[in-house]
Amino acid sequence: MIPNELADLEAIEIKRQAQQALEIEAEAIKELSDSINGDFVEVVKVILACQGRVILTGMGKSGLIAKKLAATLASTGTPSFFLHPAEAIHGDLGMVTREDIVITLSNSGETKEVINILPVIKRIGAQIIALTGGLDSTLAENADYVLDTSVAEEACPLNLAPTASTTATLALGDALAVALLHARDFKPEDFALYHPGGSLGKKLLLTVEDVLNVREENPIVAQETSLKQTLFTMTSTRMGAANIVDQEGKLVGIITDGDIRRQLEKSPDLLKSSAQEIMTASPTVISVDKLAAEALKIMQEQEISDLPVVNQQGEPLGLINFQDLLKAGVL
Questions:
Q1: Which of 45, 126, 185, 322 could join 305 in a cystine, given CB atoms 3.0 to 4.6 angstroms apart?
Q2: Phi first, then psi: what are they for 35, rounded to 5°?
Q3: End-to-end CA distance of the chain, in Å?
Q4: Which of 128, 137, 145 has the alpha carbon at shortest distance from 110?
Q5: Which domains does the chain have, with CATH numbers?
Q6: Beta pairing, strands 220-222 & 145-148
Q7: How many whole angstroms separate alpha carbon 180 and alpha carbon 100?
Q8: What does the pLDDT look like over 11-59, one tens digit per residue?
Q9: At 309, which helix (H) or strand (E)?
Q10: Spatial contact of 155 and 45, defined as CB atoms under 8 Å apart
Q11: CA distance 302 to 308
Q12: Which pairing describes strands 101-106 and 127-132: parallel, antiparallel, or unpaired?
């Protein structure tokens, strides 16, 4: 057991060390932000003009950052992949073409595995962009473009473990990705195109028509139809609602099973009424070309479980059910 006094002292020191680490890393990013200049702009333009791929490489902790940045760039419209420098020297440099850009990450700029592949990359003809804190390093001397990621100190109390330096490199790489995304006029639907399997992709790609196709049932009832027959229609189609139409086939209202239950409490003879008498007139509707996420938003805001889908003429094409949206993974 740790004595209470010692435990309190340890807690205070733990918090102090953690806060100091965060402050050092935050300051590193702040200084990096202040140093954004024409070199950064030029690098963005060079990448935009690239006819090949953007290849990121780095060793150790820098390699881990390079992998993350390659994934971020690839998902935001810049074809990218990670190349391990140690594997590159043993044949994987065959992945590099003269149309590519190689972004090299090394805080010191003297990482042996990275330095070893520079002559071959230059011979291939690919351009080299260096993200390094060593502005007078071998890497910087051999790069076509250099972005400074130097930091005043590491967050590590020994000033040894890559902490602030890797955070700064990651932040600068993200800044590159965001600048490129903006320059390409990258839209949410473009982002969804590269994320079709996740919930984000479904929110940005799935339309009302896609969800409507899940059910082929389209319960439609004329407004003069008895409520009893309306209920039969709802039951046979296994829908909890029905679209009510006029003589021209245009939507004039909607009836849900909830409406019927609430009205039955007031009138036992309700089933003899017509659909028109208890329907919700002029209900909120949506068209098939709208995003399913928009349908979900409407249903949540208005606290409804069924939303009529209509065409340009106001004719009902079906009903979107809250459960259908759940099954489609829109949430």
A1: 322
A2: -95, 0
A3: 47
A4: 137
A5: 4-186 (3.40.50.10490), 208-327 (3.10.580.10)
A6: unpaired
A7: 16
A8: 888 898 999 999 999 999 999 988 899 999 999 999 999 999 999 999 9
A9: strand 306-310
A10: no
A11: 13
A12: parallel
Torsion, Cα 204 209 210 216, to 10 degrees, reads 160
Which tokens in the block code for residue 282? 């002029």
Give the H or E element holding residue 105.
Answer: strand 101-106
Query: Are 312 and 211 in contact, with CB atoms under 8 Å apart?
Result: no
In eight-state DSSP terms, residue 287 is -
Q: 186 and 72 in contact (C-beta within 8 Å)? A: no
Structure tokens at 94: 């065959």
pLDDT single digits (tens) 134-166: 999 999 999 999 999 999 999 888 888 889 999
Q: Which residue has the tokens 């390079």?
A: 66
Question: Tokens in use for 132?
Answer: 């390094």
Please tell me the predicted confidence (pLDDT) of residue 269: 74
**107 Cα distance to chain centroid:** 30
**d(Cα 153, Cα 176) in Å, to the nearest integer?**
23
Task: Report the b/e string of 176-203 with b at 16+ CB within 10 A.
Answer: bbebbbeeeebeeeebbeeeeeeeebbb
- Indicate the Cα dihedral angle 214, 217, 223, 224, nearest 10°: -170
Structure tokens at 116: 């070893």
